[in-house]
Amino acid sequence: MPFTPPKPIAPTPEELRGSTVLVVDDERAWRVILETDLKMLGYKVSMAEDADQALVRAQADKPEVAIIDLMLPEPMDGWGLLNELRSRGQKVPVIFYTAYPVFPSGTDDPDVVGYMSKAVDRADLYALLPVAIRRSRERRDSDS
Q1: Is residue 85, in this structure, part of any structural domain at all?
Q2: Which of 62, 67, 118, 127 would you label with 20, given CA atoms 20 to 30 Å apart?
Q3: Residues 18, 46: contact at Cβ < 8 Å?
């Protein structure tokens, strides 16, 4: 397979630097990669390795977007976590990130910004963040 260099990662728009991104993944390697990239891009990063930790972090850190691995360890997977966040009134936009190449057919949750395979270029994942954060801010502004 020919080597394809990674896509250049677009710089974070100035007004979005410092936004908090919640990363939920049970695999340490992925947490390290995402945290390193996101910090380099100017985001604050809140890390969790399972749904319980994620609920605590979401409450404490008020993230503007969450990147959630669909396959979290029992008892609560990514969908369960999303539902639990919603039941607690947290409408944070979510990007599901998964090792599986097949994505579930759509959800009716308007705050699921996208599904990304871990096999795709991470630049594509990070390109979704400004969209999600702006959506988060618009809602916050309209709610206040």
Answers
A1: yes
A2: 118
A3: no
